[in-house]
Specification:
Layout lengths: L7 E7 L7 H10 L3 E6 L8 H9 L5 E4 L2 H4 L3 H13 L3 E4 L6 E3 L3 H34 L12 H12 L4 H8 L3 H7 L15
Parallel strand pairs: 1-2, 1-3, 3-4
Antiparallel strand pairs: 4-5
Helix pairs in contact: 5-6, 6-7, 7-8
């Protein structure tokens, strides 16, 4: 009996086993993905078994669907290489959220636009990293070399907002910035479990 085949195949990626891809899976299922493949691995790893399996399942005229561009790759070179590979197979790419949303074909003007959006996504990650480092440096300058600061500085707040917009949970943000979850809930009201939309993680 031939294997079941789907026209829209989803892919999710989280960097660590401590993260949850449920938000991504829910969005991909709602978009109509018949099959979803997943990696729980750093994007800096040399191999991604889930993505490789998704490629094996894809056929010409199919579309690979991801929740956000940075789930596909963390650099312009990596994302563009994957997009070109998809195009060589006659496979489309669909992005559900973020700066680049929709289905695209990486050729001609579309390819130029995609390069620019991928570059912007990489720049956005660099800015988040810089804000995080600036926030930690500001905390150290104020004598908070350890523990959790009780007051959230503008730099730390900017870093927390950027990380939240990038899909990180309040727990992950608090750990990364060295602050309490209570501070996250207080300064980012939408992160409070009592007010968060269904499907998001506290």
């Amino acid at each position: 009996m031939a294997a079941q085949h789907f026209n829209l195949i989803g892919y999710t990626r989280v960097s660590t086993n401590g993260q949850d891809a449920q938000l991504q899976r829910d969005a991909l299922t709602t978009a109509g993905c018949g099959r979803i493949f997943e990696d729980k691995i750093s994007s800096r790893a040399t191999t991604r078994p889930g993505l490789a399996e998704a490629f094996d399942r894809l056929r010409p005229t199919d579309t690979l669907c991801v929740w956000k561009l940075d789930r596909l790759g963390r650099s312009v070179k990596e994302v563009l290489t994957i997009a070109d590979s998809l195009h060589d197979q006659g496979v489309g790419l669909r992005i559900l959220t973020g700066t680049l949303t929709g289905t695209y074909n990486p050729t001609g003007e579309g390819k130029f636009f995609f390069i620019m959006m991928a570059a912007f996504a990489e720049l956005e990650r660099d800015m988040i990293r810089e804000r995080t480092m600036a926030g930690l440096a500001a905390a150290r300058a104020q004598g908070r070399t350890g523990g959790r600061p009780t007051v959230m500085s503008p730099d730390i707040l900017a870093a927390a907002q950027a990380r939240r917009a990038n899909g990180e949970s309040p727990t992950q943000i608090a750990k990364a910035l060295g602050i309490s979850r209570a501070s996250i809930y207080r300064h980012l009201p939408n992160s409070n479990p009592r007010t968060m939309p269904p499907g998001q993680n506290p």
